[in-house]
Amino acid sequence: MTATPTDPTATRGALVPLLFGFFPTQVLHVGAALRIADRLADGPRTVDALADETDTDAASLARVLRALACFGVLDHVAPDTYALGPHGPGLLTDGPVSLRHLVLLFAGDGVWRSWGELGESVRTGEPAWDRITGETSFEHMARHPEMQANFNRAMAEGTRNAAPGVAEAGGFDRFRWVADVGGGDGTLLAAVLQAHPHLRGTVVDTAAGLAQAPAVLAAAGVDHRAEAVEGDFFVGVPEGPDAYLVKSVIHDWDDDRATAILRTVRRSLGPGGTVLIVEPVVPEQPVGSPDVLMMVMSDLNMLVCTGGRERTEAEFRSLLAAAGLVLRSITPVPGPTNYSVIEAVAAS
Predict the structure, then answer these.
(1) What SS3 state is found at 279?
(2) CB 152 within 8 A of CB 186
(3) Helix (H, G, I), strand (E, B) or coil at 239
(4) Catalytic: 140?
(5) pLDDT, tens digit, 9 for 90 and up, residues 133-168
């Protein structure tokens, strides 16, 4: 069956923005790397002043600032003078809507170069990152503390948006103790504990992943009900919780390694225990909605960077079965997110 001919103008209008879509990515990355938003937090600055502070060529910086103004990140308020625009807070280092660390991660050198090798990953089935750097992405971060710290903050930025919805969709009222496996700095666990004052919580991650967890839990006012426990989800997780929360972990790994993580959790799962996996669920039929596009782009990012993947409901069912678990329900997370809570219990 041949494709239906389309209006050439419409086709060009659809594909040209995709063709040049990587241009704005690097504009955002340069703005984030130079901390332009932070430098404008206290008011407008001239191009020359910003160039002096950032040790950049003023004429070239002016061109980037102009582009950031076109994107609404900055406002051009006077000749050669810029202030924060309506979307500027998204590039602040801190703040409730900050995406700065996500920009630094996903438009940074490792991910950027890996996407340039998408074709090779499609040919070989292997992550481009490993070929480019000579080690896996997680090994690479372990050897570069600055990158690990940025990764942790980027994951927290991504989690912050979804956390209230996860706290609502997870049905946490029925639990007494929840462990967030691979929970990083505790951003998600803190939100769940804030929403459910009866709960006790444990966040489990590597030492590097947990570096900021005590401070995050204390700032949320839940540290008296929470603990941070160093661990390796390929080896073991604490026994005792009646719910294990696993967000944005399984998609990092191929089926064998993902199954190994779930088997680790299954071994510690007590009678009547529940596993709550928080990840996108890719529909069987691809459509061009923003949510699905985010899923499939994330899926390709896993291909080139980690060897993992996003999964359909059928693929989750298969993965869970291999780990001795059975899928009980899938609940979309409310709010501006494409996550779902995938609930599983031990297979009988």
Answers:
(1) strand
(2) no
(3) coil
(4) no
(5) 999 999 999 999 999 999 999 999 989 989 999 999
How far is it, in rounded angstroms, from Cα 231 to Cα 205? Answer: 5
Strand-pair partners of 232: 236
Element (H, E) at 343: strand 340-346
Position 65: which residue type?
Answer: L
Residue with tokens 């209008």: 13
pLDDT in tens, 8-58: 889 989 899 999 999 999 999 999 999 999 999 999 999 999 999 999 999
Question: Which one is catalytic: 29, 101, 196, 251?
Answer: 251
Q: How far is CA 225 from the centre of its chain?
A: 26
User: What are the residues facing 329 on neighbouring strands?
Assistant: 343
Q: At what angle do helices 22-33 and 58-70 cross, to 10 degrees?
A: 120
> Domains, the chain, ranges and CATH?
8-97 (1.10.10.10), 159-346 (3.40.50.150)
Q: What is the pLDDT of residues 293-325, one digit of tens each?
A: 999 999 999 999 999 999 999 999 999 999 999
Buried b (16+ CB within 10 A) or exposed e, 128-159: bbbebbeeebeebbeeeeebbebbbbbbbbbb
> 297: exposed, middle or buried (C-beta count within 10 Å: 0-12, 13-18, 19+)?
exposed
